[in-house]
Amino acid sequence: MYVPFVGEVPSDIVVAWIVSILLGAALLWWMTTRKKWPLVWDYITTTDNRKIGTMYILLAMVFFIRGGIDAMFIRTQLAIPENDFWVFQSQKYNEVFTTHGTVMIFFVAMPLLIGLMNIAVPLQLGANDLAFPYLNSISFWLFVSGGIIFNMAFFFNAAPNAGWTSYAPLATDTFTTGPNNNYYIFGLQVSGLGTIFTAINMIVTIIRLRAPGMKMTRMPLFSWATLVTSFLILIAFPVLTVALLLLMFDRIYGTSFFLGEYGDPVYWQHLFWIFGHPEVYILILPAFGIFSDVISTFSRKRVYGYTSMVIAIALIGLLGFMVWAHHMFTVGLGALANSIFAITTMLIAVPTGIKVFNWLFTMRKGVVRITTPMLFSLGFIPTFVIGGVTGVMLAVAAADYQYHDSYFVVAHFHYTMIGGTILGAFAGIYYWYPKMTGKMLDEKLGKWHFWLFIIGFHLTFMPQHFAGLNGMPRRVYTYTWEDGVFLLNFVSTIGAFLMGASMLIVLLNLYKTHRLTDPVGADPWDGRTLEWTVGSPAPEHPFQPIPKINSIDAYWYSKVERKKLPESEEPRPSPIAIQTVAPVLLAGVLIVMSIGFIYGWVWIQVMGGIAALGFFIYRVFNDERKAVYRKEEES
Amino acid sequence: MKQTSEVLFNDKRLGFFLYLVVEAIMFATLFATYILYTPSPRGADPTEVYELRTVVLTSVFLLSSSGTLLIAESGLGNWNRLKIWIGLGTTFLLGSIFMGLEVHEFYKYWSEGYTLTMNNFLASFYVLVGLHASHVAFGLVWMILLMVQFKQTMPKSLFIEKHKIFNYYWHFVDVIWVLIILIVYAPYLL
Predict the structure, then answer these.
(1) Which CATH number do you get for residue B54?
(2) CA distance B150 to B138
(3) A628–B15 CB contact, under 8 Å
């Protein structure tokens, strides 16, 4: 399509620009007429964990829509054989599956879980905030910055196109010229830095900010899962950082780490999966934690086998670092390496199985209430078990030569990522929505959402197992009538649109909840853990005084005994919260600097670098601790 | 009851140690890259590139700067302002000399034709040692900021906190340098 002054532009990009400008204008108009700017400003400058968590989830939902629309394009293109839907063939199709995968993993699943951690973990521990509120704000804005860098690529007709794994040598500048994959590198680099800071923040919070008596062995399982996940992030993400750094040198400065006669493409695969496999456990463990808390609450029972649950989380985390090469069975690492990695991979099924049985035993003889969060948890168990079983199938190295890069793999990881992470995030959002906003999402619409989503999900991905077994490779934009996978693909497409429709119900639910319902009290679900002792929405500085804990699910037992939780006499000082606009400015600076690198504009790189350094200097002289320490010294 | 500053310092120290773990893993990955690609089948060999004299000189300056930083650390204990000045000042001086020598080393190699793109040994050398050098440079800026803050009136406990965090950083950067000597230079110079 020809655009004046710009030239030839694919029509999907023109449509995206028009839609974005219209939506943006409508949003601005709405915020101005409804006088929402003070509220927006308050959220932008906040360091409060609940507000930051809410923003994480809100933005993740925006990216979810983007990644979801990508998925719709993919499914429409694949609906019938030899299809030519809009522009989504060959190179454009590569772009659309690359952005779908990358956005869903890094800008949807991660922030959804990190958002829920932000909201729930300090409250579950009896802490007044995360250990470093300022750093938390930095983390969030780095994520925003990375998300903007990655997503704007599409608007400049330069969406990354080497798959979410960005395999070399395809991802090097010899084979994919243009700025496309530079966007991938910088988007992930910046948001990854934010994730690392969040992990540090979570670990320090969990180790040092628990309320008196809240021993590690009394923590709710979501907090435990967050702790283990944070350690995984701490070890896995730096490897990604270095991998991206080396890829950047290959692309921008002419080295050849991953290609050519000197370099080694398999080294990229090793680095990527040493990060990438722990990453999938980073995505699933917090979801396990959410399900444990939800199932326990709605079964009116303590979680079954608490100790074995904690050990299982830790074991999964540990084993997660010993399995990366199962993504590379067909590379040719040799029989011994393949056997070892096959066995460690199968071993993960053991702790996961323990957790599944513990969830079932938690419900046994419990007083089960089928609420929306519980429904998502119940839907999760069989779905995830299917994903686990196909996972063990894929772990058989010899058989993997058949499954590798086929739709069987696509079906498998969607069963674990959607069946685990996304269902978990939905359960968590419905469950903690009162803590975020002070209102309860509508239960009836919630259940509609669940049923449409889960039916759509199985319709989409169950047939893909069979398409894969029949030889349909992933990442191809078309197939023929003779391939015999038309019906499977067609059903899959119908399912995908059902899932898309279920998300419209979420929007309807949000509208209904906020326009038509009243605020709820502190404990709408009859909960068991500390987050239900503070008001809804959770105020800044929620625990005054800080409670004293003497058992697992202490709040539940205090309700049973009709007593109030005892107060601790000498609580530790809380972290210092402030209002600051600096993190937003830093995010802006990093976007500008990244663009400098993406397009090779040296002056913008230099200016961005100086501005980023200037931020450090500003920070040094505007430390919120100064006033607090001075007061302490004077007294 | 513990002082607020003490509790918050312990939070920050744990957080910073965790950050150093992140850094350590990044360097570990780069060390692995270096070991994997060195020596390269083609292009320059490390034995013809490295010079013993430069390595000894840079090491003397950087490693002794960790020692002089101890003077400042002991000054923090009993709040001896002179000791802090002497410690920080000499550390800064030694660090700057190291930085100068490092830049000179890179410049020399480069002008002799041993560039980043020659082969993967040199590429991984420049990325690894360059990342270390940028840490030293960042540390030098940090020291300047510390000294400016030391001149300002600020709570004593806050200055001690900031200084201690910097000490951990500088010692960490030194440990990495020891590993660079052992892994990068020593096998090809001895």
Answers:
(1) 1.20.120.80
(2) 18
(3) no
Chain A nearest C-alpha distance from B114 (Å):
13
What residues are paired with A3 via a beta bridge? A7
CB pair distance less than 8 Å for B11 and A204: yes
Instruction: Give the residue numbers spanning the domain of B147.
Output: 4-189
Mean residue pLDDT across chain A: 94
What are the structure tokens assigned to A350, written together?
Answer: 């053991």
Number of domains in chain B: 1
B-chain residues near A570 (CB < 8 A): 1
CA within 13 Å, CB half, A248: 20
Is B2–A239 a contact, with Cβ atoms under 8 angstroms apart?
Answer: no
Question: Is this model's pTM higher than 0.90 or not?
Answer: yes
| Cβ-defined contact of B11 to A255 (cutoff 8 Å) | no
Q: Which residues of A603-627 are buried (b: 16+ CB within 10 A; e: fewer)?
A: ebbeebeebeeebeeebeeebebee
d(CA A503, CA A571): 44
What does the pLDDT read at residue A9? Answer: 87
pLDDT tens track for A179-228: 999 999 999 999 999 999 999 999 999 999 999 999 999 999 999 999 99
pLDDT tens for each residue of B22-55: 999 999 999 999 999 988 888 889 999 998 999 9
Q: What is the pLDDT of residues A410-428, one digit of tens each?
A: 999 999 999 999 999 999 9
Q: Which of A125, A129, A198, A200 to probe the B interface (max B CBs under 10 A)?
A: A200
Q: Is residue B91 very low, low, confident or very high in pLDDT (cuts 50, 70, 90)?
A: very high
Cβ distance A572 to B7 less than 8 Å, yes or no, reads yes
Nearest to A257 among B2, B5, B123 (CB): B123
Q: Would you say A386 and A365 are in contact if contact means Cβ atoms under 8 Å apart?
A: no
Q: How far is B20 from chain A (nearest CA, A)?
A: 10
Read off the pLDDT band of A544 (50, 70, 90). confident
Q: Are A556 and A528 in contact (CB under 8 A)?
A: yes
Domains identified in chain A and CATH numbers: 1-35 (no CATH), 36-459+477-634 (1.20.210.10)
Chain A interface mutation, best of B5, B6, B22, highest count of A Cβ atoms under 10 Å: B22
Query: Cα separation of A559 and A417, whole Å?
Result: 36
User: B120 and A135: CB-CB below 8 Å?
Assistant: no
On chain B, the residues whose CB falls within 8 A of the CB of A200 are 15, 18-19, 22
